[in-house]
């Protein structure tokens, strides 16, 4: 914890809400804390989380409830405000495409944190035009400085071919993963639940991300482009917009993608976090948030206890936990009692 660490920000959902939804005369949901995507039958309570990822202690630093209509930039600002008070040396925060907007960039820069995220390529956007220029020059790697009106850190667009996403790397749990498959898995929760495969191009969910919207709300969005090159955005100071050679440019892009693959640690954390989440039928968003925050505390305690056990037994910390989450919960219940209050 004394060195620079990487973190990830993402939004997770609780168990589906099966209760009654209050709607207006037009059928729109009037529930500010119970959110759903277009054409989705069961909505959810949702929470945004910032978590340390990579090879460092995988702790959840903060979590906030997500309310309908709240901007992603405000969520990121809130999370970074809490996280940087705990770990002041966050070097890089990684997010998915739903956080790709100027407000999020400004929130990261206000807290002195670099960001890295992919962006959606829309038709007639600067990204699509630059991808066309790359195709005309028979290039598929590039780093371009983005224009900004103030004197803040240089913002850069990183371009790499889709085939680079298909190079295998390993998750924190030792399983193989590709960046492309990560995004396919994420977006499968956001688009229609059609079986996804990496062979689908025409209606790929990589270019069909839907935002957080009202039930039955009609969305008018710019047409998205199916591009052979994938753009990312970053203000990371070690990314050079004018490297000495093309080989060095490819190497630095590769290093950034290796970092981004570590973002998957937050998804693995969400899967384990559900082990600690108490079941409830309550509609009170405050009680729901308390339950989720308490689950985050238990998750952190489990990871810290496991690290102490590994150090005592092996003298080092490996990727796989030595203490299972279920074993930790069983021992905690016996020793301290975790029965909920009346």
Automatic annotation (TrEMBL):
Listed GO MF terms: DNA binding; transposase activity
Pfam families: DDE_Tnp_1
Domain Transposase IS4-like stretches: 49-281
GO BP annotations, alphabetical order: DNA transposition
Protein name in the entry: Putative transposase
Superkingdom of this protein's organism: Archaea
UniProt source species: Natronorubrum thiooxidans
